[in-house]
Structure formats: structure tokens, C-alpha cells
Design a protein that fits this description.
The chain is α/β, with parallel strands linked by helices. Among the domains are: about 10-150, Alpha-D-Glucose-1,6-Bisphosphate, Chain A, domain 3 (3-Layer(aba) Sandwich); about 260-340, 3-Layer(aba) Sandwich (Alpha-D-Glucose-1,6-Bisphosphate, Chain A, domain 3); about 380-455, TATA-Binding Protein, CATH 3.30.310. It contains 14 helices and 21 strands. The strands form 4 sheets. The protein has a 6-stranded mixed β-sheet, sandwiched between helices. A 5-stranded mixed β-sheet has the order 8-7-9-10-11, sandwiched between helices. The chain has a 5-stranded mixed β-sheet with strand order 13-12-14-15-16, with helices on both faces. Helix 6 links the parallel strand 7 and strand 8.
Length: about 450
């Protein structure tokens, strides 16, 4: 039995021809359908060159397991999530490698009600089935139905329910889809806004899906990728810029001066929006940067609940607490009324509504947050041994810490600053986030001090 190396900590991804190919895609599709004894499985794909072939192979696997395929075609991960709930499917597969290198591909999978796979009960069982090819005999073959047009229409309807269209005021918005899958879906939303006479002007860049990624892999978290959006915002005198990753489950923001807005501050803006509309609600956040979100949620009468980083953990925490919204500083934002799933389209709609109703610029909205709780952003350091590197930092800083939290990695809190250290699941990297209260601490100095310990 050959081990499949494309099964990672949270999803399936790997190098083409090394870790994953069409035959493996077939096996995964069949294993998913067999494991869930599925009547129907939603299948979609991103804009990569190999994605149509992988989606076709996975569909054949599903049908050979006597399950029906609901094909949504070129789509975002969140469109697959919503289709699973909307069409009451037993599982969903999106073929995507998101922001991984061009020679990669992979899959994200959910089960009924768009729930994440349980690691032991689902993910590892599917992996074992795909490796062993221990297929059940079937009496007939499933069918495939193209539901792409209907699924997108229903998706657009649900995301637009998050805002009040009548409150939207004139805004000029730069949109960078990174030549990934976002363009057609964005256009479907924009067309509906135009029909409803919403006075938005969109400046589209890198808009058309293109598997050659002529402007680089769509990953706005990379500093070198940000000027493409920021410079157009400034040149066009736009109100804001938005940029998507490859499967657009993450949306990134730029203010009217082209400055990149850290995900932790977007999280707080979205939490504020939901607490204004739904007082007393519960908000889930990750442990990396917490003081700003906890302050805002507390002042607005909500309840902030900390969860381990990662979509499965955030979604589980939200379902258990019935939280209305959850967010991570990495720009994953989760919504109770979107099957507790993450979306890259809902955030920009909510932010444009906030700009319209507040009369404030994005820069002004975020400035008060940053002044009160400045953050370093996430810093990644290559190390020979992550555990040894983290232990070295803890040995120096933990004796003076007021509190130590090991929810995810390790967080040390002091009177006026705190930091979170985590190791990467897949690379020899240590990830560091630092935050402070006001200007009492020089974050850059703290960053350099800890950084020097990794050299």
C-alpha cells in the first residue's frame, strides 16, 4: 500500500507528479464518496491548469462509488461550502492549491452541513481508503449534474443578505483578483449590485483567471505582492483596495492611501459590525493577537472567546458557542449565517457598508485601533529546530511573564506587551507576533531582540 504524501495537517496538497496526479485525485474522490456513503458530492475547482482534469478525475471516482456529482465548475472554496449546505449534499470537494506555487495542486473537503472533517474519524480514514483502494462493489454508477449557474445565483443571494443595500453610498474600489478564481464570482456580485443601483465604481486589475499567473501567485500576504494593488488605489484616488488569494477564501484590504491593513484590525472591524447589529453576541478569535479584539468586543457588550488557530478549531468553537462571527489575523473570516464557514467576499461587502454608514475612511477607522494596540504583524523565521528555538526564547522571557497561554504555540503576556510564538506544521519556521498597549513599548525593539535569538 503506497503512502499518499499529499495528505497534510489540514488539507490535501502537493507537487504535481510527485505527491498528486489525476489517478490520486480519482482515488480521493472515490474514498470521500465511499466513506460518507454519499448520495451526492459537490465538486468545484480553481483556476490552475491541472484543476479541470483533477476535478474530472475526482468526479469519476465519486460516480464509481455510486454517488452523484453536483458540479459547480470554476468556483471559490466558499462557493463549494455553501453549495454543500444549500443542496444538502453529503460532502464537498474543491480542487485548489490556493496560494501554493504554480507546480502544486490539492483539495479541500467538507462533509454534510459544510462541517470540517474530523481528523481521526474522517480525514485519516479517507487517506487510508485512498491508499488501499479497498473499494466496495457497486451495482450502478452515479450521475453528474452541472449546477454551476444555479449554485452561483444562490451563493450571491446569501452573501448579499449580510448587508443592507439601501445604505451603500458611492465608493471607488480597486479589486485585484490575482488572476485566480475570484473574477467571475466577483462579477456576479457586482452585476447584482449594479441592478440594485448600488453606486460603487470598481477598478479591476489582474481580473481574468489565468493559470499561468502572469502577475505571480495570488497571495497578498507577501509584501512584494502588495504594491500591485496599493499603487492603483493611490493613482485612482480610490476609497479602498481589496485583493484575493487563489481560491478567494481570504480577502485583504488597503486603505485610501494604499496602506495594507493587518488582518487583526479587519477582524475587529467586522466584530464591531456584528455587535452593532446583534448586541451581546459571541465572537471567536485566534490567540496570536488578542488585546485589540478583546477590548472592542468587551466595550461593545459582546463576549470574546479564544480558539486555537485553524479553520476546524474556529468552526468547532463557533458551533459549540453559536458565535455569530469568528476571525483569524491571517484573513480567514467565519460567519454563523454562512454555514459557519469562511468567506472572502462577505468581508469586503461588510466593510463597504461600514464605510457608507460611518462616513469615515478606512484609514481613520483603523487608526484608533492601531494607536491603542499596535501590532508587529506575523514574522516568520527559518530555524534549524523550531522546538529548540522556542525553548530558548521562553527560557529568557517566561520568568518575567505575568501569564503564559499554550492554547496555540505559546503566548507570554507582560504589563504592556505580549507575544505569541508558534511553529509551522510543515516547515522549519517559527512564527512570531507581538502586540502592545499604546506607545509604552517599542515593538520594533522587542521584535529585534527576539529575532536575534533565532540567528
Amino acid at each position: 500500500m503506497g503512502k499518499l504524501t499529499c495528505f497534510k495537517a489540514y488539507d490535501i496538497r502537493g507537487e504535481l507528479g510527485v505527491d498528486i496526479d489525476v489517478e490520486i485525485a480519482y482515488r480521493i474522490g472515490r474514498a470521500v464518496a465511499q466513506h460518507f456513503n454519499a448520495k451526492s458530492v459537490v465538486i468545484g475547482r480553481d483556476a490552475r491548469e491541472t484543476s479541470p482534469g483533477f476535478a474530472e478525475a475526482a468526479s469519476k471516482g465519486v460516480m464509481d462509488a455510486d454517488s452523484n456529482v453536483l458540479d459547480i465548475g470554476l468556483a471559490g472554496t466558499e462557493e463549494m461550502y455553501w453549495a454543500v449546505t444549500e443542496y444538502e449534499a453529503d460532502a464537498g470537494i474543491i480542487v485548489t492549491a490556493s496560494h501554493n506555487p504554480i507546480n502544486y495542486n490539492g483539495m479541500k473537503i467538507v462533509k454534510s452541513e459544510s462541517k470540517p472533517l474530523d481528523d481521526n474519524g474522517d480525514f485519516k480514514v479517507i487517506k487510508k481508503l485512498a491508499e488501499s483502494k479497498n473499494w466496495k462493489k457497486t451495482l450502478k454508477r452515479g450521475t453528474i449534474s452541472n449546477i454551476a449557474k444555479d449554485a452561483r445565483k444562490k451563493y450571491v443571494n446569501i452573501v448579499l443578505k449580510f448587508i443592507n443595500l439601501s445604505k451603500l453610498k458611492p465608493l471607488k474600489i480597486v479589486v485585484n483578483c490575482g488572476n485566480g478564481a475570484a473574477g467571475p464570482t466577483f462579477d456576479a456580485i457586482a452585476n447584482t449590485l449594479e441592478i440594485e443601483r448600488v453606486p460603487f465604481e470598481f477598478i479591476r486589475i489582474h481580473h481574468e483567471p489565468d493559470f499561468t499567473f502572469p502577475n505571480g501567485i495570488p497571495n497578498p500576504l507577501l509584501v512584494e505582492n502588495r504594491p500591485a494593488t496599493a499603487e492603483v488605489v493611490v493613482a485612482e484616488n480610490a476609497d479602498l483596495g481589496i485583493a484575493f488569494d487563489g481560491d478567494f477564501d481570504r480577502c485583504f484590504f488597503f486603505d485610501e492611501r494604499g496602506a495594507f491593513i493587518g488582518g487583526e484590525y479587519v477582524l475587529s472591524l467586522l466584530a464591531s459590525i456584528f455587535l452593532e447589529k446583534n448586541p451581546g453576541s459571541k465572537i471567536i478569535h485566534d490567540p496570536r493577537v488578542i488585546w485589540n479584539i478583546q477590548d472592542i468586543v468587551g466595550r461593545k457588550g459582546g463576549k470574546a472567546i479564544q480558539s486555537k488557530t485553524g479553520h476546524a478549531f474556529i468552526k468547532q468553537s463557533m458551533r459549540l458557542s453559536k458565535a455569530i462571527y469568528g476571525g483569524e489575523m491571517s484573513a480567514h473570516h467565519y460567519f454563523r449565517d454562512f454555514a459557519y464557514c469562511d468567506s472572502g467576499m462577505i468581508p469586503w461587502l461588510l466593510i463597504t457598508e461600514l464605510l457608507s454608514t460611518s462616513g469615515m475612511s478606512l484609514r481613520k477607522l483603523v487608526k484608533s485601533q492601531f494607536d491603542a494596540f499596535p501590532s508587529s504583524g506575523e514574522n516568520n523565521f527559518k530555524v534549524q529546530n523550531a522546538d529548540v528555538a522556542i525553548e530558548k526564547v521562553l527560557k529568557k522571557y517566561s520568568p518575567k511573564a505575568i501569564s503564559i497561554d499554550e492554547t496555540d504555540g505559546v503566548s507570554l503576556s507582560f504589563k504592556d506587551w505580549r507575544f505569541n510564538l508558534r511553529k509551522s506544521n510543515n516547515e522549519p519556521l517559527v512564527r512570531l507576533n507581538i502586540e502592545a498597549r499604546g506607545n509604552k513599548v517599542d515593538i520594533q525593539e522587542k521584535l529585534e531582540n527576539i529575532k536575534s535569538m533565532f540567528i
